[in-house]
Amino acid sequence: MQTSVMTQWFLPLALFVIMLGVGMTLRVDDFRRVLKAPRAVLVGLLGQLLLLPCLGLMLVTALELPPLLAVGLMVLTFAPGGATSNMLTLLSRGDTALSVSLTAISSLITPFSLPLLTLMALSHWQGDAVLPDFPVLESVMKLVLVTLLPVLLGMLVSGHSPGFSQRVKGPVKILSLLFMVVVVTGIVAANWGRLPALVAIVGPAALLLALLAMGSGYLLARLMRLQASQQVTLSIEVGIQNAGTALLVTGGLLQSAEMSASALIYGVLMQLPALLLVGWRNRDLVLVRQRIQ
């Protein structure tokens, strides 16, 4: 199966199902929480929407990544958080409510902000290489249909039929995972011959960016004197992004295998520092079990 089929059909479908599942976990109270505790949410949005792209720009510039790979990594920094960051926050005993609220708000913002920021990134590197044209309006419409609409539908289903929502959450997660496996397999296959070289170039930059993002998110939250659990949450929310959304832009709209590989490599490597954080936050549970035994 050709990569274009993967990115044009399977990826939007996979992302729609994923965001539908995200919407089923959201409530109207997740938005109201912004009014009750605005400082933590605003700091989190600042970290996601401003701090992470700035870190990405400084890093890819300092490391002089090739334009296509640099833009792919930048698109990933423009993407929202998602179900993965919510799950990792739960596992690391962070503020899950804050994580869900950030997911809810960023899901409303990024369909509009991501295309504009991507256009800026393409313009920045346009003089260094021949880059593909980027249809901004089409991108906004597609992101609204594939990311924002399913979130709203998921919230509607969850609000009006909570029993049905609980029953289908499991199948929705399994289906979205299967779709993403197909998409990732297609992207890897398209870059198979160049994959070792791409990983050698992008891998260190992606891992370093993930470490810097998580560390900066934690320091920002600490500087703003947020609670310890909120500091952990912001560390994860700034470092863990929705690679599926980034791949929709790089593969589905820009149709660039190199950009997609860059976003995908970050999407894999960002899990490593996050899992280390989960282990560190649960180290006391391990010690307790050892003492009991």
From TrEMBL:
Its main location: membrane. The chain crosses the membrane at residues 6-28, 40-63, 69-91, 98-120, 140-160, 172-192, 198-220, 232-254, 260-280. Pfam families: SBF. The keyword Oxidoreductase does not apply. It is a multi-pass membrane protein. It comes from the Bacteria. Keywords: Membrane, Transmembrane, Transmembrane helix. It is found in: Membrane. It comes from Marinobacterium iners DSM 11526. This is Bile acid:Na+ symporter, BASS family. GO terms for cellular component: membrane.
